[in-house]
Design goal:
2 copies of one chain form a homodimer. By secondary structure, chain A is α/β, with parallel strands linked by helices. Among the domains of chain A are: 18-88, Arc Repressor Mutant, subunit A, CATH 1.10.10.10; 94-204, 3-Layer(aba) Sandwich (Rossmann fold). In chain A, 35% of the residues lie in helices and 15% in strands. In chain A, the strands form 3 sheets. Chain A has a 6-stranded parallel β-sheet, sandwiched between helices. In chain A, strands 1-3-2 form a 3-stranded antiparallel β-sheet. A two-stranded antiparallel ribbon of chain A has the order 6-7. The longest helix of chain A has 19 residues, at 18-36. Chain A is globular, with a radius of gyration of 24 Å. Chain A starts with 17 loop residues before the first helix and ends in a 45-residue tail after the last helix. The model of chain A is unreliable at 1-13 and 224-262 (pLDDT under 50). The first copy, chain A, binds a DNA duplex through residues 1, 3, 9, 17-20, 43-45, 54, 56-57, 59-60, 62-63, 67, 69-75. Chains A, B: Its main location: cytoplasm. Chains A, B: Residues 245-266 are annotated as: Disordered.
DNA sequence: TCGGCTTTGTGCACACGTTCACAAGAGCCT
DNA sequence: AGGCTCTTGTGAACGTGTGCACAAAGCCGA
């Protein structure tokens, strides 16, 4: 394109907005599907629809990668798949280690979605010696003691934490110490890591809570358009006596060890 | 602002920013932990640290709920736990149905964290009659045929889809037809639902791809702390002549890396 | 060669989200 | 009572993200 402008839109090396990066995988998935159907080209409108976004947004997102489209025609599917894959770094191999082989770790180990994108489950680890040694998804679970060695030998670059919440920070510390700078955390805890280390979190219970919020809003707005019921307009923090009652909705026998239950996405 | 401040922030009925709603569960978790440790009050600074956010942001977030703090002191933990729980709708019971009892569905069914927040797994469903009938997590898996009836009888309000991607849309359609307006989708597909229905998506593969993007960037920027970021940025693609020609960068080894990532998800 | 049609790439305006910085309250000590 | 210290609540600046609308650019048919 080269608009001859002083500064090139070249966000190339740096500057691709986070929001855009988060959507690229979405476009890639849609493009891959098109590719398999043998579709040669797509317009921003079609691709946007397939990815569930606004077409203007899609065009702007793609423009950060470069001018890979043809006006009046659209985008070459294969070419775009390649460009996005490269931008996301999927053209290389990413050995992943899953730490914590409980319900979730077990499920992830068997999840096919990983291998299909350049991600390779290189190792499964667990602190429980009863678990270590078991064969899961064709791999032998290793013990946490070997973590550093495994990371080094297999060149693991991404760590997936699926341990119970209390153990997560410790595991993260060891991963970081071992040189890992990217962590996907499923444990319901806030991980503290040194600068330069990336942590992304997946939390099922948070997603459900957000849904509950909207669901509640929907049901309370639909029937009676009237304002909220909230009469507590005059209840200073002096009477916390009412509060406690809620903390435990379901009588799940003192579970709240601080979200101690299985890590699970939740 | 414009809103004549009669008595309260009045963001009550509507208007709590999405970004804030998404963080409330985080605060709630941190507060619950404090509560269990018997801590009576917290300052925005402490709570922010525990939740991993900026204190100013936390104060602003909480201010949308009302003025529940005490200047010079902080927030009453119990009281705040109650207020946030109520705002999120966690003071009521939310029956959840999990559709698709594969690895992930199985793991979720066994996850204990559900009950701790007002969510109750009311039913497990699967399209495979070999799966239906099995006992998982103390429940008998039902067949998809009974979906509508189960939703009605148990008052299910939230559906969790953990089926393979191809089946997701069909399941979503049935859930919506059955009256469900909140869906948590784990299948790697874009679900199309009528307005008024909320869909939240959790995609492990996307999270990994985002991590890969940053990881790649890190390794290519690390060596040179100075300016020059990515030298390997490939040709500026300024020459439009290149793009069209590369319609098939496949085997013929195009101008770039030469290796086409055979990426495809499940 | 020249319009006409299509679709990209992007300038611009607006909405949303984040952060700073500080006045206003609240409690405490003298 | 007066002043000091602490912390909230929020105005305002700033940064990021979104979406419209349109000029530029490629393709095609006459």
């Amino acid at each position: 394109m080269a608009t001859g402008r002083t500064e090139r839109p070249a966000h190339r090396g740096r500057g691709i907005p986070e929001a855009t990066v988060a959507r690229l995988p979405l476009y890639l998935r849609a493009l891959t599907a098109l590719s398999e159907r043998g579709v040669p080209t797509v317009s921003s409108e079609e691709l946007a629809a397939a990815a569930g976004v606004n077409s203007a947004k899609l065009r702007k997102d793609l423009s950060y990668l470069g001018s890979y489209g043809t006006r009046g025609v659209g985008y070459d599917v294969e070419y775009l798949v390649y460009q996005i894959s490269r931008e996301l770094g999927l053209t290389q191999d990413w050995p992943v280690a899953i730490i914590g082989i409980g319900n979730l770790g077990h499920a992830l180990a068997n999840y096919g979605g990983f291998a299909s994108r350049g991600f390779r489950v290189a190792a499964l680890l667990d602190a429980d010696r009863a678990v270590a040694g078991q064969r899961i998804a064709g791999m032998v679970v290793r013990h946490m003691d070997d973590l550093e060695q495994i990371v080094r030998d297999d060149g693991v670059s991404i760590g997936v934490i699926t341990t119970p919440a209390p153990a997560a920070q410790g595991v993260a510390d060891r991963l970081v110490a071992a040189g890992i700078t990217s962590i996907l955390n499923f444990a319901p805890t806030v991980l503290t890591v040194p600068e330069g280390v990336d942590v992304r979190k997946v939390d099922l219970s948070i997603e459900l809570q957000i849904l509950a919020f909207h669901e509640q809003r929907k049901s309370s707005t639909e029937p009676a358009p009237g304002p909220a019921p909230v009469p507590a307009a005059v209840t200073p923090a002096v009477s916390p006596a009412v509060a406690p009652a809620v903390t435990r909705p379901t009588a799940s026998g003192g579970d709240l060890g601080g979200d101690l239950p299985e890590v699970m996405p939740a």
